[in-house]
Amino acid sequence: MEDSNKIIVKRSLNEDYLYYIVEFKDGLQLIPNNWFVNESKKEAYFPNYTNFKIYDKAVEAMEPTQENWKKYPIVQIHAKAKTFSKGKAKLKDAELQSDLSTENEEKRKKERHQRARKQIHYPDSEEDPWQFTSSKKSIANETEPEDEDAYPSYPSSPDCRQLPLCDIPNLATPLPKSYEENGVGTSKRKKGQEERMYSSAPPKRKLPIYDDDSKTILRYLSGLRHSVNVCLANQIEILDKLKHLEPSVKHPEESSNNNREYRNEIRDLFPINTLDDMSVVEEKLSHDDFKMQCIKEFSKIGGRSLNTIIYNILPKIMSNELAERYSWFGAKGKLVFSNLKLTGVIQETVRHHMSEATDCAVEGPVKKWLSKAKER
Fold it and tell me: Which residue intervals define the domain DUF4806 in the entry (predicted)?
Protein backbone atom coordinates (compact mmCIF):
# COMPACT_ATOMS: atom_id res chain seq x y z
CA MET A 1 0.00 0.00 0.00
CA GLU A 2 2.82 2.36 0.87
CA ASP A 3 4.61 1.54 -2.41
CA SER A 4 1.51 2.39 -4.43
CA ASN A 5 1.20 5.70 -2.59
CA LYS A 6 4.83 6.55 -3.41
CA ILE A 7 4.24 5.81 -7.10
CA ILE A 8 1.16 8.06 -7.12
CA VAL A 9 3.16 10.89 -5.48
CA LYS A 10 5.97 10.57 -8.05
CA ARG A 11 3.49 10.68 -10.94
CA SER A 12 1.82 13.76 -9.53
CA LEU A 13 5.19 15.51 -9.20
CA ASN A 14 6.12 14.67 -12.79
CA GLU A 15 2.73 15.83 -14.06
CA ASP A 16 3.39 19.27 -12.50
CA TYR A 17 6.04 19.83 -15.18
CA LEU A 18 4.00 20.65 -18.26
CA TYR A 19 6.90 21.51 -20.60
CA TYR A 20 10.16 19.73 -21.44
CA ILE A 21 13.35 20.89 -23.18
CA VAL A 22 14.32 17.90 -25.32
CA GLU A 23 17.14 17.33 -27.78
CA PHE A 24 16.30 15.84 -31.18
CA LYS A 25 18.91 14.84 -33.73
CA ASP A 26 18.71 18.27 -35.39
CA GLY A 27 18.67 20.42 -32.23
CA LEU A 28 16.91 21.48 -29.03
CA GLN A 29 13.19 22.22 -28.77
CA LEU A 30 10.50 22.96 -26.18
CA ILE A 31 7.49 20.59 -26.21
CA PRO A 32 4.53 19.96 -23.85
CA ASN A 33 4.30 16.73 -21.90
CA ASN A 34 1.27 15.47 -23.88
CA TRP A 35 3.41 15.18 -27.06
CA PHE A 36 5.41 12.23 -25.70
CA VAL A 37 4.53 8.91 -27.33
CA ASN A 38 4.57 7.06 -24.00
CA GLU A 39 5.80 7.41 -20.42
CA SER A 40 9.33 6.34 -21.34
CA LYS A 41 9.76 9.73 -23.08
CA LYS A 42 12.08 8.27 -25.71
CA GLU A 43 9.91 9.45 -28.62
CA ALA A 44 7.68 12.43 -29.22
CA TYR A 45 5.16 13.62 -31.78
CA PHE A 46 6.16 16.78 -33.63
CA PRO A 47 3.89 19.02 -35.80
CA ASN A 48 4.75 20.06 -39.33
CA TYR A 49 4.37 23.80 -38.67
CA THR A 50 6.70 26.12 -40.59
CA ASN A 51 5.89 29.28 -38.61
CA PHE A 52 7.55 29.77 -35.22
CA LYS A 53 4.68 31.86 -33.86
CA ILE A 54 2.12 29.15 -34.68
CA TYR A 55 4.42 26.55 -33.15
CA ASP A 56 4.84 28.55 -29.91
CA LYS A 57 1.08 29.00 -29.63
CA ALA A 58 0.56 25.25 -30.09
CA VAL A 59 3.14 24.47 -27.38
CA GLU A 60 1.74 27.02 -24.94
CA ALA A 61 -1.83 25.74 -25.46
CA MET A 62 -0.60 22.12 -25.23
CA GLU A 63 -2.37 21.34 -28.48
CA PRO A 64 -3.45 17.67 -28.78
CA THR A 65 -1.46 15.54 -31.23
CA GLN A 66 -2.82 14.99 -34.74
CA GLU A 67 -2.81 11.91 -36.97
CA ASN A 68 -0.50 13.53 -39.52
CA TRP A 69 2.21 14.31 -36.93
CA LYS A 70 5.36 12.20 -37.17
CA LYS A 71 7.28 10.47 -34.39
CA TYR A 72 10.88 11.48 -33.73
CA PRO A 73 13.39 9.86 -31.34
CA ILE A 74 14.60 11.93 -28.39
CA VAL A 75 18.35 12.04 -27.79
CA GLN A 76 18.20 13.62 -24.34
CA ILE A 77 15.91 15.57 -21.99
CA HIS A 78 17.80 18.65 -20.79
CA ALA A 79 15.27 20.35 -18.50
CA LYS A 80 11.59 20.70 -17.61
CA ALA A 81 9.39 23.61 -16.56
CA LYS A 82 5.98 24.24 -15.06
CA THR A 83 5.11 27.24 -17.25
CA PHE A 84 5.66 28.13 -20.88
CA SER A 85 7.70 31.28 -20.13
CA LYS A 86 10.08 29.40 -17.83
CA GLY A 87 10.41 26.69 -20.47
CA LYS A 88 11.45 29.27 -23.11
CA ALA A 89 14.04 30.72 -20.73
CA LYS A 90 15.49 27.29 -19.99
CA LEU A 91 15.54 26.52 -23.72
CA LYS A 92 17.74 29.59 -24.33
CA ASP A 93 20.09 28.55 -21.53
CA ALA A 94 20.35 25.02 -22.95
CA GLU A 95 21.09 26.35 -26.46
CA LEU A 96 23.78 28.67 -25.06
CA GLN A 97 25.46 25.82 -23.18
CA SER A 98 25.32 23.65 -26.32
CA ASP A 99 26.99 26.39 -28.40
CA LEU A 100 29.72 26.86 -25.77
CA SER A 101 30.46 23.14 -25.66
CA THR A 102 30.84 22.92 -29.44
CA GLU A 103 33.14 25.98 -29.44
CA ASN A 104 35.32 24.39 -26.73
CA GLU A 105 35.58 21.14 -28.72
CA GLU A 106 36.68 23.02 -31.86
CA LYS A 107 39.19 25.02 -29.79
CA ARG A 108 40.67 21.83 -28.32
CA LYS A 109 40.99 20.31 -31.81
CA LYS A 110 42.88 23.40 -33.05
CA GLU A 111 45.20 23.28 -30.03
CA ARG A 112 45.99 19.61 -30.73
CA HIS A 113 46.85 20.43 -34.37
CA GLN A 114 49.04 23.35 -33.28
CA ARG A 115 50.91 21.18 -30.78
CA ALA A 116 51.54 18.60 -33.52
CA ARG A 117 53.03 21.31 -35.78
CA LYS A 118 55.30 22.65 -33.03
CA GLN A 119 57.02 19.31 -32.39
CA ILE A 120 60.32 20.51 -33.86
CA HIS A 121 63.56 19.56 -32.05
CA TYR A 122 66.57 21.91 -32.01
CA PRO A 123 69.86 20.06 -31.31
CA ASP A 124 72.34 21.41 -28.80
CA SER A 125 75.28 20.35 -30.97
CA GLU A 126 77.52 23.12 -32.31
CA GLU A 127 78.59 21.10 -35.32
CA ASP A 128 75.52 21.99 -37.38
CA PRO A 129 73.66 24.97 -35.83
CA TRP A 130 71.61 25.57 -39.00
CA GLN A 131 70.10 22.09 -39.17
CA PHE A 132 66.85 21.31 -37.35
CA THR A 133 64.52 18.34 -37.58
CA SER A 134 60.80 17.75 -37.31
CA SER A 135 58.99 14.76 -35.88
CA LYS A 136 57.74 13.85 -39.34
CA LYS A 137 60.23 15.13 -41.94
CA SER A 138 63.57 16.93 -42.01
CA ILE A 139 63.29 20.45 -43.35
CA ALA A 140 67.00 20.62 -44.17
CA ASN A 141 66.64 17.66 -46.52
CA GLU A 142 63.92 19.46 -48.46
CA THR A 143 66.23 22.32 -49.47
CA GLU A 144 69.16 20.21 -50.66
CA PRO A 145 68.25 19.20 -54.27
CA GLU A 146 68.77 21.87 -56.90
CA ASP A 147 67.63 20.06 -60.03
CA GLU A 148 64.45 21.20 -61.79
CA ASP A 149 62.74 17.80 -61.32
CA ALA A 150 62.42 18.52 -57.60
CA TYR A 151 59.61 21.02 -58.35
CA PRO A 152 56.14 19.86 -59.44
CA SER A 153 55.14 20.71 -63.02
CA TYR A 154 52.04 22.92 -63.15
CA PRO A 155 49.66 22.89 -66.13
CA SER A 156 49.61 25.97 -68.36
CA SER A 157 46.10 27.26 -67.86
CA PRO A 158 44.63 30.75 -67.30
CA ASP A 159 43.59 29.80 -63.77
CA CYS A 160 47.11 28.81 -62.65
CA ARG A 161 49.85 30.19 -64.86
CA GLN A 162 53.54 30.31 -63.97
CA LEU A 163 54.89 33.81 -63.65
CA PRO A 164 58.56 34.87 -64.05
CA LEU A 165 60.92 33.53 -61.41
CA CYS A 166 62.26 35.78 -58.68
CA ASP A 167 65.71 35.49 -57.14
CA ILE A 168 66.13 34.90 -53.42
CA PRO A 169 69.53 36.23 -52.37
CA ASN A 170 71.90 33.95 -50.47
CA LEU A 171 72.43 35.59 -47.10
CA ALA A 172 75.56 33.50 -46.50
CA THR A 173 77.53 34.96 -49.47
CA PRO A 174 81.03 36.06 -48.32
CA LEU A 175 81.66 39.79 -48.02
CA PRO A 176 83.87 41.60 -50.58
CA LYS A 177 87.62 41.82 -50.05
CA SER A 178 87.42 45.56 -49.41
CA TYR A 179 85.46 44.83 -46.25
CA GLU A 180 88.05 42.30 -45.09
CA GLU A 181 90.92 44.68 -45.73
CA ASN A 182 89.29 47.39 -43.65
CA GLY A 183 88.65 44.96 -40.85
CA VAL A 184 84.89 45.14 -41.21
CA GLY A 185 82.58 42.17 -40.76
CA THR A 186 84.46 38.89 -40.37
CA SER A 187 87.68 40.07 -38.73
CA LYS A 188 86.54 38.90 -35.29
CA ARG A 189 85.21 35.56 -36.43
CA LYS A 190 87.16 32.38 -36.50
CA LYS A 191 87.88 30.74 -39.80
CA GLY A 192 86.33 27.43 -38.76
CA GLN A 193 83.07 29.07 -37.77
CA GLU A 194 82.90 30.90 -41.11
CA GLU A 195 83.43 27.71 -43.10
CA ARG A 196 80.85 25.84 -41.06
CA MET A 197 78.35 28.67 -41.49
CA TYR A 198 78.84 28.89 -45.27
CA SER A 199 78.73 25.14 -45.79
CA SER A 200 75.52 24.63 -43.82
CA ALA A 201 73.69 27.69 -45.18
CA PRO A 202 70.94 27.02 -47.74
CA PRO A 203 72.05 27.58 -51.36
CA LYS A 204 70.68 30.22 -53.68
CA ARG A 205 67.32 29.08 -55.03
CA LYS A 206 64.82 30.25 -57.61
CA LEU A 207 61.25 29.80 -56.40
CA PRO A 208 58.29 29.90 -58.79
CA ILE A 209 55.49 32.38 -58.07
CA TYR A 210 51.92 31.41 -58.90
CA ASP A 211 48.77 33.52 -59.14
CA ASP A 212 46.30 31.97 -56.70
CA ASP A 213 43.81 34.82 -56.95
CA SER A 214 42.73 34.29 -60.55
CA LYS A 215 39.03 34.59 -59.69
CA THR A 216 39.52 38.10 -58.35
CA ILE A 217 41.38 39.07 -61.53
CA LEU A 218 38.62 37.62 -63.70
CA ARG A 219 35.99 39.58 -61.77
CA TYR A 220 38.04 42.74 -62.15
CA LEU A 221 38.40 42.18 -65.90
CA SER A 222 34.67 41.56 -66.22
CA GLY A 223 33.89 44.82 -64.46
CA LEU A 224 36.45 46.62 -66.59
CA ARG A 225 34.84 45.27 -69.76
CA HIS A 226 31.44 46.53 -68.58
CA SER A 227 32.88 50.00 -67.92
CA VAL A 228 34.44 50.07 -71.39
CA ASN A 229 31.10 49.11 -72.97
CA VAL A 230 29.35 51.93 -71.10
CA CYS A 231 31.97 54.43 -72.30
CA LEU A 232 31.55 53.22 -75.88
CA ALA A 233 27.77 53.62 -75.68
CA ASN A 234 28.18 57.18 -74.37
CA GLN A 235 30.60 58.02 -77.15
CA ILE A 236 28.20 56.68 -79.79
CA GLU A 237 25.41 58.81 -78.34
CA ILE A 238 27.64 61.90 -78.36
CA LEU A 239 28.64 61.24 -81.98
CA ASP A 240 24.98 61.00 -83.02
CA LYS A 241 24.26 64.35 -81.39
CA LEU A 242 27.27 65.90 -83.10
CA LYS A 243 26.05 64.61 -86.46
CA HIS A 244 22.74 66.39 -85.96
CA LEU A 245 24.53 69.58 -84.95
CA GLU A 246 26.99 69.45 -87.84
CA PRO A 247 24.66 70.85 -90.56
CA SER A 248 23.72 73.86 -88.45
CA VAL A 249 27.39 74.53 -87.63
CA LYS A 250 28.54 74.22 -91.24
CA HIS A 251 25.65 76.26 -92.62
CA PRO A 252 24.55 78.72 -89.91
CA GLU A 253 23.00 81.04 -92.48
CA GLU A 254 20.76 78.29 -93.85
CA SER A 255 19.59 77.26 -90.38
CA SER A 256 18.84 80.86 -89.42
CA ASN A 257 16.92 81.32 -92.67
CA ASN A 258 14.90 78.17 -91.98
CA ASN A 259 14.07 79.37 -88.48
CA ARG A 260 12.99 82.72 -89.85
CA GLU A 261 10.74 81.00 -92.38
CA TYR A 262 9.19 78.83 -89.67
CA ARG A 263 8.51 81.84 -87.47
CA ASN A 264 6.79 83.67 -90.30
CA GLU A 265 4.75 80.59 -91.12
CA ILE A 266 3.68 80.17 -87.49
CA ARG A 267 2.57 83.79 -87.30
CA ASP A 268 0.46 83.28 -90.42
CA LEU A 269 -1.16 80.02 -89.24
CA PHE A 270 -1.88 80.93 -85.62
CA PRO A 271 -4.31 81.51 -84.08
CA ILE A 272 -6.33 78.90 -85.98
CA ASN A 273 -9.80 80.09 -86.97
CA THR A 274 -11.32 77.32 -89.12
CA LEU A 275 -11.35 73.54 -89.34
CA ASP A 276 -9.50 73.72 -92.68
CA ASP A 277 -6.70 75.67 -91.05
CA MET A 278 -6.64 73.08 -88.26
CA SER A 279 -6.13 70.31 -90.85
CA VAL A 280 -3.22 72.24 -92.40
CA VAL A 281 -1.57 72.73 -88.99
CA GLU A 282 -2.04 69.05 -88.08
CA GLU A 283 -0.34 68.01 -91.31
CA LYS A 284 2.60 70.32 -90.71
CA LEU A 285 2.99 69.11 -87.11
CA SER A 286 3.81 65.65 -88.46
CA HIS A 287 7.25 67.13 -89.32
CA ASP A 288 9.51 67.31 -86.28
CA ASP A 289 11.25 70.53 -87.34
CA PHE A 290 7.99 72.45 -87.54
CA LYS A 291 6.75 70.97 -84.26
CA MET A 292 9.96 71.92 -82.41
CA GLN A 293 9.79 75.45 -83.79
CA CYS A 294 6.16 75.78 -82.61
CA ILE A 295 7.14 74.64 -79.11
CA LYS A 296 10.03 77.10 -79.12
CA GLU A 297 7.80 80.02 -80.15
CA PHE A 298 4.97 79.27 -77.70
CA SER A 299 7.49 78.76 -74.87
CA LYS A 300 8.26 82.47 -75.08
CA ILE A 301 4.80 83.29 -73.72
CA GLY A 302 5.24 81.82 -70.22
CA GLY A 303 3.31 82.49 -67.00
CA ARG A 304 3.57 82.33 -63.20
CA SER A 305 1.74 79.01 -62.74
CA LEU A 306 0.67 76.00 -64.78
CA ASN A 307 -2.88 77.32 -65.25
CA THR A 308 -1.61 80.76 -66.19
CA ILE A 309 0.79 79.32 -68.79
CA ILE A 310 -2.01 77.26 -70.41
CA TYR A 311 -4.52 80.13 -70.37
CA ASN A 312 -1.90 82.40 -72.00
CA ILE A 313 -0.96 79.86 -74.71
CA LEU A 314 -4.41 78.67 -75.86
CA PRO A 315 -5.66 82.08 -77.16
CA LYS A 316 -2.51 82.27 -79.29
CA ILE A 317 -3.23 78.81 -80.74
CA MET A 318 -6.94 78.94 -81.62
CA SER A 319 -9.87 81.35 -81.61
CA ASN A 320 -12.90 81.10 -79.31
CA GLU A 321 -15.20 80.36 -82.26
CA LEU A 322 -13.17 77.30 -83.20
CA ALA A 323 -12.76 76.26 -79.55
CA GLU A 324 -16.58 76.06 -79.23
CA ARG A 325 -16.56 73.10 -81.64
CA TYR A 326 -14.09 71.05 -79.53
CA SER A 327 -14.13 69.30 -76.19
CA TRP A 328 -11.42 67.15 -74.64
CA PHE A 329 -13.19 63.80 -75.24
CA GLY A 330 -15.75 64.95 -77.85
CA ALA A 331 -18.74 65.15 -75.51
CA LYS A 332 -22.15 66.49 -76.71
CA GLY A 333 -21.33 65.78 -80.36
CA LYS A 334 -18.25 68.01 -80.41
CA LEU A 335 -14.87 67.22 -81.99
CA VAL A 336 -12.19 65.42 -79.95
CA PHE A 337 -9.37 67.76 -78.95
CA SER A 338 -7.19 65.21 -77.11
CA ASN A 339 -6.44 63.30 -80.35
CA LEU A 340 -4.88 66.33 -82.08
CA LYS A 341 -1.12 66.68 -82.50
CA LEU A 342 -1.62 70.18 -81.19
CA THR A 343 -2.22 68.70 -77.73
CA GLY A 344 1.36 67.41 -77.69
CA VAL A 345 2.64 70.88 -78.56
CA ILE A 346 0.75 72.36 -75.59
CA GLN A 347 2.07 69.70 -73.20
CA GLU A 348 5.70 70.11 -74.31
CA THR A 349 5.41 73.90 -74.13
CA VAL A 350 4.22 73.69 -70.52
CA ARG A 351 7.06 71.28 -69.64
CA HIS A 352 9.55 73.81 -71.01
CA HIS A 353 8.66 75.96 -67.98
CA MET A 354 7.63 73.19 -65.55
CA SER A 355 9.58 70.01 -66.29
CA GLU A 356 7.59 67.90 -63.79
CA ALA A 357 4.17 68.77 -65.25
CA THR A 358 2.20 65.62 -66.17
CA ASP A 359 -0.31 65.11 -68.98
CA CYS A 360 -3.13 64.88 -66.41
CA ALA A 361 -2.10 68.22 -64.90
CA VAL A 362 -2.28 69.87 -68.34
CA GLU A 363 -5.59 68.18 -69.18
CA GLY A 364 -7.67 69.95 -66.51
CA PRO A 365 -7.01 73.60 -67.49
CA VAL A 366 -7.42 72.79 -71.23
CA LYS A 367 -10.83 71.16 -70.56
CA LYS A 368 -11.97 74.18 -68.61
CA TRP A 369 -10.78 76.63 -71.28
CA LEU A 370 -12.59 74.75 -74.05
CA SER A 371 -15.84 74.56 -72.02
CA LYS A 372 -15.81 78.34 -71.41
CA ALA A 373 -15.20 79.25 -75.08
CA LYS A 374 -18.85 80.17 -75.71
CA GLU A 375 -18.95 82.53 -72.72
CA ARG A 376 -15.87 84.37 -73.91
Answer: 269-339
pLDDT reported for residue 298: 92
Supply angle C-alpha 30, 69, 61, rounded to 5. Answer: 45
Rounded to 10 degrees, the C-alpha dihedral 310/311/317/319 comes to: 150
Contact 317, 349 (CB under 8 A): no
Identify the DSSP state of 40: T
Summarised one tens digit per residue, pLDDT across range 95-148 is 888 765 656 656 655 665 554 454 444 444 444 444 444 444 443 444 444 444
Q: Which amino acid would we find at residue 162?
A: Q
- Which long-range contacts (C-beta less than 8 Å, at least 24 apart) are formed by 140-145? 143/202, 143/203, 143/205
In the prediction, which pLDDT does 369 show? 93
Q: What share of the chain is helix, strand, coil (3-state, %, to 5)?
A: 55, 10, 35
The domain ranges of the chain are 2-112, 270-371
Reported as a single tens digit per residue, the pLDDT across 33-47 is 999 999 888 999 999
pLDDT > 80? residue 224: yes
Q: What sign does the CA torsion over 286, 310, 268, 337 have?
A: positive
